[in-house]
Amino acid sequence: MTITTERTTTPACAEHDDLFQSPLLEEPALASSVELRRRQVLMTRKAESICLDCPLMVDCLYRAVAKHDVAGYCAGTTQRQRAEIRQHLGLRVDPEDFDTFAGANSGHQIDHDEVLRLRHARPNDSLESIAQRLGCSLSTVKRHLRKARRGEAVGRPAKLSSIVPTLEQVLNAYQQVVARARPSQPTRRAA
């Protein structure tokens, strides 16, 4: 379902923001109870159906795979599926740098080891005071500490490819990753 005016087309997901912004559509967190898991499956199926019927699906899929690291359920795909599509394409899309966008830092990279060193050297300091010392946001400090707890790699890995994939390449990778289990698949629609 989309609302079409003479000037714009509103994406179907915007008309169903309560569904698409639900924490139950986030990954990898699976619902803890059987009832919540059932609701999660039903919500995912409904979101998938809305996406597949949307005339903006193909453009949305391309942008969510090749241009932006979108969070949550988007373009009939989960974050994990989009990551797998990018892997098939040999593509890396860096997440948005919201700290710089919001003016929380000047765009300089925060040294991961420095965050850990300050936290270790001053265990009683608040995370906010560490952020102030580093000239970054509180969320940046928290993100670095979470990565350290999880043992994740830090820093920005080199791009796997500097070549932007074509729409056809993205659709082919989508077919390989997602559509093999679906009866209907997005097709290229005329603009």
From TrEMBL:
InterPro entries: 4FE4S_WBL, RNA_pol_sigma70_r4, WH-like_DNA-bd_sf. Residues 12-84 form the 4Fe-4S Wbl-type domain. Signal peptide: none annotated. Gene3D superfamilies: Winged helix-like DNA-binding domain superfamily/Winged helix DNA-binding domain (1.10.10.10). PROSITE patterns: 4FE4S_WBL. Pfam families: Sigma70_r4 (PF04545), Whib (PF02467). This is AraC-like DNA-binding protein. It comes from Brooklawnia cerclae. The lineage of its organism: Bacteria, Bacillati, Actinomycetota, Actinomycetes, Propionibacteriales.
